[in-house]
Amino acid sequence: MKVSVVGTGYVGLTTGASLAYLGHQVTCIDLDPKKIEMLRAGRSPIFEPFLEDLLAAASANLTFTTEYADGVPNADVVFVAVQTPSLPDGNPDLRFLRSAAESVGQHVAGDYTVVVNKSTVPIGSGNWVDAILRDAYEERHGASADGRLGVASNPEFLREGSAIGDTLYPDRIVIGSDDDRSLEVLTRLYRTVLDQSFTAPAFLPRPDDLGAVPLVSTDLASAELIKYAANAFLALKISYINEIGYLAGKVGADITKVARGTGLDSRIGSRFLQPGVGWGGSCFGKDTAALISTAAEYNYDMPIVRAAREVNERQRGAVVDRLLDELRIIKGRRIGVLGLAFKPNTDDLRDAPAIDIARTLVARGARPKLHDPVAAERFRREQPDLAEYLCDSAEDVFDGVDAIILVTEWSHYLELDWAKLMGMMRTPIVLDGRYALDRARLEKSGYRYLSMTN
Ligand code: UDX
Questions:
Q1: What distance in Å separates the CA atoms of residue 304 and residue 248, rounded to the nearest whole number?
Q2: CA nearest 170: which of 155, 185, 181, 151?
Q3: Which atom of ligand 1 is nearest to the CA of 434?
Q4: Cα–Cα distance between 396 and 368 in angstroms, integer?
Q5: Nearest CA to 282 among 211, 319, 241, 231?
Q6: Closest Cα to residue 242, out of 163, 318, 151?
């Protein structure tokens, strides 16, 4: 099938490269000429494992352009995957989506095109996009868009750092439309993922236990709500274990064992029960805020989702408080922070806990020493006022510090020679914000090991 993807961020680029790999003819459109130039040269503008391998494997089916006219007119399916950043009131900023929908509406010219919203949008936006598309189409073509255009939602569940695997081997595919023809087109588009009949790429083999992928085919509003319900649930699972973690610290229980013993109940599940400094990233914060704000439009409060956000915010403050308990005085101290990206295997710094932690340290008079193996350059650009605290290597961070906080559990940090590096520290205190380090080994080397809870 012929596919166009508008927006080459994490979602758009992964979707485009994956569909091209599966054999569809894909045109990726982005208004940023620099990004398009890089992509044409086979380089990815974002750090995502296997993405460049996938771009190379799919290159025969993949073109990149800044022009809607190059990809949209004959497309069977157009994915819109532009950014929808949060406004101060928690609602997403839909300006980019509006202008993308207008441009798509002006350029579609095939017999029938399904326009799929991949951007995370408030529930009900499908109808709004539909209206914009139709107006733009009718203005340009002077004819009704009836029977020419379908609008669908196909929510995205990919995680940064494992985006390619999540797209080729998903837990499920959700499609929603009020138009049966659109649902039928999308089911065809995803056929080889649904029955897993494509040849798995050598660099990312198919998981052994993966069978057919379930399809949830539903109406537009249900598909839109599924995205929010899933992300909010994952966010609250993490906040829940962090809330239990607080109590575990008080009663002298080991939260990692509590999480394991709880999660092995198959009704609960052990994933997303990893305690620590909490969640960051572009989705959980934004989606929980948008869910609360949509509910408010219907005069409904969402206390559970609100609490998940409050607990998550508290975790960030708790990191510095934990250190304060130990050091007594934080002013004038040098504190190492390992990891800036919101999680390992990405250079994404959106809503990253490390940024709040570094700012709190500075505000309380400490001098942080910051490092990230991949996101440092991006950090320098995006947080210029904190750039002076960046170190060139993880080893540099240890030099002369009073304590080290592990904020992002990059394997690079887990593999450091901690016993040797201890000699460079002023006091060998480590706060493991992710329960990722080997406590027994560190203690044996002479470290004072602190976790978030004990
Ligand atoms: C998330 C959803 O998982 C994905 O389905 C959706 O499409 C986009 O949002 P992402 O933000 O890429 O994906 O990362 P994810 O792996 O979910 O991690 C989010 C945050 O939660 C990270 O900061 C991570 O460190 C934290 N986390 C995750 C925990 O603190 N504990 C856990 O058990 C899992």
A1: 21
A2: 155
A3: 30
A4: 12
A5: 231
A6: 318
For a substitution probing ligand 1, which of 121, 283, 314 has the most ligand atoms within 8 Å of its CB? 283
Read off the amino acid at residue 67: E
- In sequence order, the 6+-apart residues with CB closer than 8 A to the CB of 225 are 123
> Is 283 one of the catalytic residues?
yes
Query: How far does CA 364 lie from the centroid of its chain?
Result: 30
CB of 70 closer than 8 Å to CB of 109: no
Residues 367, 356 contacting (CB under 8 angstroms): no
Tokens of 368: 């942080």
Catalogue all structural domains in the chain, each as residue range(s) with its CATH number: 2-216 (3.40.50.720), 228-307 (1.10.1040.10), 315-450 (3.40.50.720)
Question: What pLDDT, on a 0 to 100 scale, did the predictor assign at position 337?
Answer: 98
Q: Kindly report, residue by residue over 291-336, the tens digit of the pLDDT.
A: 998 999 999 999 999 999 999 999 999 999 999 999 999 999 999 9
- Asked if 73 and 110 count as a contact pair (C-beta separation under 8 A), the reply is yes
Beta-strand ranges (E) seen in 125-182 are 149-153, 173-177
**Residue pair 357/379 in contact by the 8 Å Cβ criterion:** no
- Give the neighbor-by-neighbor strand order of the sheet with 367-371: 367-371, 334-338, 403-406, 429-432, 448-451
Q: Which of 51, 82, 74, 54 is nearest to 1 (CA)?
A: 74
Q: Please give the distance, rounded to the nearest whole angstrom, from the Cα atom of residue 361 to the centre of ligand 1.
A: 25
Helix, strand, or coil (residue 114) = strand
